[in-house]
Specification:
This protein is α+β, with helices and mostly antiparallel strands. Helices cover about 45% and strands about 20% of the residues.
């Protein structure tokens, strides 16, 4: 079980907010569960926005007026014969709080206030804050709204809140009566939590290991004897984390699974699809940069079973490991630092060894 305090840190890193924000401000220690934690974070963040002033944006309005302003709408003026009334129809831009990110924030405040799993006192705070958005239109949220969000340096305070709003949107579901909502068991959603876990690791290493360039990469296939039409149908490769150092490269695949190992007819095994995916990334990296230090890691949260498995596949060192997200946060940081150091040592040693020949790779594939 991952403590609420650790989940708080996890989301802060994943949503590009760490190390900003004080723990006491969100009342993290008094939050008994994830819905109440998210509600408190949303309340604290929205109050900060009101203290500094809500973001505004230009919005186009159309009105009939005596003095022309903005752009004349001749089509409507002719159709409605406004010249007989001595008025003009104009389109004009005006600064307003009624922009998409404020609409999303208002809608999330109201939706979360109706969640049965949120404490009543926090629900009251959510409703009160939603009423403060009196000049912002109500919005029925959909997934497409989050794809249209545009934030910049000037309104970067919204970045964390928009990620929080999106996570709440996907987590709320109607209760059996349809009048309220319930908060899903978020930690059971392995796909969504894998994305959070991946973002957390990327932000963590970017912050703490500045000697690496850390990012997700989309490597091209190392392929020959293919037409452009054939190449266009190849699936896209996207690494979770690629850490590039002047001396070596580390590729990490992060998965948030209840069980790191798969249970099969012959007992527990490393999950084959995860291993195949990682070794594909590593083989293409080796083909592009032969002789360069290289290693890979599959990393999972530790759910009662600690793993430190080491292999050398096709001449490339690979580590399958878990990190205990249920421990003290300082221990989690130290464990992640140690795992990266382990990968770095293996990568540096691998650079001194020759990669297996294509003929050997072929024979190994035949024997697999």
């Amino acid at each position: 079980m991952i403590p609420i305090r650790n989940l708080y840190y996890l989301f802060l890193y994943a949503w590009a907010r760490f190390p900003g924000g004080a723990i006491g401000e969100a009342g993290i220690d008094e939050s008994p569960d994830l819905p109440s934690l998210f509600a408190k974070l949303l309340v604290a963040g929205t109050r900060r926005l009101f203290r500094r002033g809500l973001d505004r944006g230009y919005k186009t309005f159309t009105d009939e007026m005596v003095g022309p302003r903005g752009r004349l709408r001749l089509d409507r003026m002719i159709k409605e014969a406004t010249q007989l009334r001595g008025t003009a129809v104009c389109d004009f831009d005006e600064l307003t709080h009624d922009v998409l990110h404020n609409q999303i924030l208002k809608a999330t405040l109201k939706n979360l206030a109706d969640c049965m799993d949120v404490e009543k006192s926090i629900g009251h705070d959510l409703r009160s804050l939603a009423k403060s958005f009196y000049d912002v239109e109500d919005l029925r949220l959909s997934a497409s709204h989050f794809r249209r969000i545009a934030v910049s340096r000037n309104n970067r305070e919204y970045i964390f809140l928009m990620r929080l709003c999106e996570f709440v949107f996907w987590s709320l579901m109607p209760d059996e009566h349809g009048s309220k909502t319930r908060f899903q068991r978020v930690l059971d959603d392995e796909v969504r939590m894998s994305a959070v876990f991946e973002d957390f690791l990327r932000s963590f290493f970017q912050l703490h290991r500045s000697e690496y360039r850390v990012r997700a990469e989309s490597p091209t296939w190392y392929v020959s004897d293919a037409t452009q039409d054939d190449l266009a149908l190849l699936p896209r490769m996207v690494t979770d984390l690629t850490l590039r150092h002047p001396d070596h490269t580390i590729i990490i695949d992060a998965k948030f699974y209840k069980n790191a190992l798969a249970q099969g007819p012959y007992g527990e095994r490393v999950r084959s699809q995860h291993l195949y995916q990682l070794i594909t990334y590593l083989q293409h990296e080796r083909a592009r940069q032969p002789g360069r230090g290289l290693s890979g890691m599959l990393i999972y949260p530790d759910v009662g079973k600690t793993l430190r498995l080491r292999y050398r596949l096709l001449g490339i060192p690979i580590i399958v490991a878990t990190v205990d997200l249920g421990g003290e946060w300082q221990d989690i940081e130290a464990e992640l630092q140690g795992l990266l150091n382990l990968c770095a040592s293996a990568a540096c040693l691998s650079g001194d060894r020759e990669a297996p020949s294509p003929e050997l790779v072929g024979r190994m594939s035949e024997n697999a």
